[in-house]
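Q: I have 271 residues here and want to know how they pack in 3D. Can you give me a structure?
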Amino acid sequence: MKNILSAPFLKEFVRTASNMYRLGYDERNGGNISLLVDYDEYKDFVTEGVIREIPLNFDASELIGKAFLVTGTGKYFKNIEYDPEVNLGLIRIGKDGKTAELLWGFVDGSRPTSELPSHLMSHIARLKVNPNNKVVMHCHPGNLIAMTLVEKLDEKSFTKLIWKSNTECIVVFPEGIGVLPWVLCGTNLIGELTAAKMKDYRAVVWANHGIFVVGDTLDEAFGIVETIEKTAQIYMTAKPFGIINTITDAQLLELVKFFKVEKFVKDGWLE
């Protein structure tokens, strides 16, 4: 059996988590990531035995047999690169759909992130939209959170403030950004509300809290977070001085036509 620390999926996961911490997206034990890992990717790195079972408190029957590399509850992103086996776990959804089978990791007896139900609900929703979406990423970008304090929590208006502040945004996420008002975290309710938004969006902002993002790869999900957060920083930096120049709707239309992403833009969002 090969050493799982050499597995490409784990190495990339660790690098991504470390970058997210260094950029300030995941302070303390804030934030979590889950990566859908195909059997062929992990079969040479773990034994077939189940280390222990972990109740899910959620019926994930649609994901039975699927495996996920996930961050642990209470774990600090800054420590993942130094001790992955303590801070991460590879789990497989059991045959009852309500149990996670631990295949590797969490050697200190810990469990997956408390937001695991929200992750699994989002995986279920996105796999129906795009079966290549394998990553769910949650973090706390400061400038984006600040925007939720001062702007209306309306998807169209919030999205367009971002789109109109930075040229690349409408190309990176032409479907826009979903927005939720404040909801108690760590609950099935916030997972259900987020998953409902995930039917239309790859990024969902949690007001006063952070963002949930999905992607085909860790790079793609991380890139969406980076783009939204950098643009929120641009917007929040400029706003106190009075914004007089933004990208117009006509210019946004030029962008979506040139990059051939107009089919993703919702009707009525660009005039």
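Q: Anything worth noting?
A: Residues 218-238 form the longest helix (21 residues). The longest strand covers residues 99-105.
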